[in-house]
Amino acid sequence: MNGINNQDVDYLKSATVLYVEDEGCTRELFSLFLTQSVGTLITAVDGVEGLEAFKNHLPDIVITDVIMPVMDGIAMSAAIRKISPFVPIIVLTAFEQTDLLKKAIAANVTKYVTKPVKNQELLDCLIDCVHILRAEQQLRQQHQREVQEIWAKQNKDLAIITSGIAEDYSDLMQKVLSAATSAKMQLTQEDNKASGYFDEIIQYTNNAYLLGNLLNILGNDYKAKTVSAHIMPYISDVVKNALTGTDIVFKMEYADDLPQVYYIEEQLQLVFKSLTINAVDAMASNGMLTLSAKCVEILEQDPVPIIPGPYLLISLTDNGEGISPEVLPNIFTPYFSTKPHSTQRGGLSLSLCRIIIVKHGGIITAGSTLGKGTIIRIWLPIGSYANMD
Question: Beta strands of 82-130 (E only): which ranges?
Answer without folding.
Answer: 89-94, 111-115
